[in-house]
């Protein structure tokens, strides 16, 4: 959806720019182009994705779900073929819990730092029985 919003704004800026180009008054054109660029910059800031948390679980079938907690907020991600990704995580320090399936125990990883727009890879996480 964010690509369509930004794409729509870019298209609108181009239409306005071409319309203004045909106008003899260049001052109006510059003002319109400047406003369109500001609108595009603002839209790009609003649609930021956050960061992601990824990892690999060993054994691959030892867990079905992963949770990431930041205060009271919890994000969940599914485990598929031993790997997981939790998207749209706000910047902050999380506690990640891998919910082990019997006979495996839960694994808890504290102090997982997530930054806006970056992937935090926890690497390989071995589950204990």
Automatic annotation (TrEMBL):
InterPro entries: Carb-bd-like_fold. Keywords: Carboxypeptidase, Hydrolase, Protease, Signal. Residues 1-24 form the signal peptide. It comes from the Bacteria. One of its GO terms (molecular function) is carbohydrate binding. This is Carboxypeptidase regulatory-like domain-containing protein. It comes from Chitinophaga silvatica.
């Amino acid at each position: 959806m964010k690509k369509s919003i930004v794409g729509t704004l870019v298209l609108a800026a181009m239409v306005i720019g071409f319309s203004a180009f045909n106008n003899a008054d260049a001052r109006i054109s510059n003002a319109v182009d400047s406003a369109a660029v500001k609108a595009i910059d603002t839209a790009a800031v609003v649609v930021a994705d956050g960061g992601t948390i990824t990892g690999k679980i060993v054994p691959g079938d030892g867990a079905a779900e992963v949770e990431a907690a930041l205060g009271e907020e919890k994000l969940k991600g599914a485990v598929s073929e031993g790997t997981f990704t939790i998207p749209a995580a706000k910047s902050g320090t999380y506690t990640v819990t891998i919910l082990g399936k019997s006979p495996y125990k839960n694994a808890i990883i504290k102090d997982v730092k997530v930054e806006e727009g970056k992937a935090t890879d926890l690497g390989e996480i071995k589950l204990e029985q």
